[in-house]
């Protein structure tokens, strides 16, 4: 039966002590005999946990620091809505022309095409002729879609 390991961390303990305690706990759990037939190795997940914690810290830390340290002197002029330096002249919930969305979707489509081309070009030697033909079929489908959009006038801005 596995021994229970208690980890007590005071609020003033440094982050390194917390990481060490988690690593010791993961080592204790992973080396404990189990009767389930598989090893539960939590040491492999420690870098992932640290990556998530550092990411949250980098994302939230500067916002909290700015909120706590930065001056807060709101006045009616600062709190008023503006649009690129001008007073707002229409409702914020106005409808946009569908062409904006169409251009955005087409941009994402062809941007993703390039995202697939880079790794393909790097691995072309190892994937051989089959990989080459697969990419040519992929590009052919995209070219057919591009020509169709062009013929329908989706790319014309009037």
Write a structural description.
This protein is an all-alpha fold and 158 residues long. The protein folds into two domains: 15-69; 94-152. The protein contains five helices and two strands; from the N terminus they run αααββαα. It has a two-stranded antiparallel ribbon. α4 (98-122) packs antiparallel against α5. The model has no long low-confidence stretch (mean pLDDT 78).
Outline the fold blueprint:
Layout: H1 15-31, H2 46-69, H3 76-79, E1 82-83, E2 86-87, H4 98-122, H5 124-152
Antiparallel strand pairs: 1-2
Helix pairs in contact: 4-5
In short:
This protein is an all-alpha fold and 158 residues long. Helices cover 63% and strands 3% of the residues. It has two domains: 15-69; 94-152.
- Based on DSSP secondary structure assignment, what is the total number of beta strands? 2
Query: Percentage of helical residues?
Result: 55-70%
**Strand order, sheet with most strands:** 1-2
* Largest sheet entry: 2 strands, antiparallel
N→C terminal distance: 74 Å
Q: C-alpha Rg, in Å?
A: 28 Å
Spell out the helices and strands N to C.
HHHEEHH
Average of per-residue pLDDT values = 78
| Total of domains | 2
Outline the low-pLDDT stretches: none
| Strand residues, percent | under 5%
Number of helices: 5
Class by SSE composition: mainly alpha
> What oligomeric arrangement do these chains adopt?
single chain
Overall shape: it is flat
């Amino acid at each position: 039966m596995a021994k229970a390991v208690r980890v007590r961390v005071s609020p003033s303990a440094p982050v390194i002590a917390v990481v060490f305690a988690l690593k010791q706990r993961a080592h204790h759990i992973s080396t404990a005999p189990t009767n389930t037939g598989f090893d539960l190795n939590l040491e492999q997940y420690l870098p992932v946990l640290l990556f998530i914690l550092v990411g949250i810290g980098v994302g939230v830390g500067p916002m909290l620091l700015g909120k706590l340290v930065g001056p807060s002197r709101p006045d009616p002029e600062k709190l008023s809505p503006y649009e690129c330096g001008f007073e707002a002249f229409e409702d914020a919930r106005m409808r946009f022309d569908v062409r904006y969305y169409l251009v955005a979707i087409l941009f994402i489509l062809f941007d993703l095409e390039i995202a697939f081309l880079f790794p393909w070009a790097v691995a072309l030697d190892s994937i051989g002729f089959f990989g080459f033909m697969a990419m040519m079929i992929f590009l052919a489908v995209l070219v057919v879609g591009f020509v169709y959009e062009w013929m329908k006038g989706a790319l014309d801005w009037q």
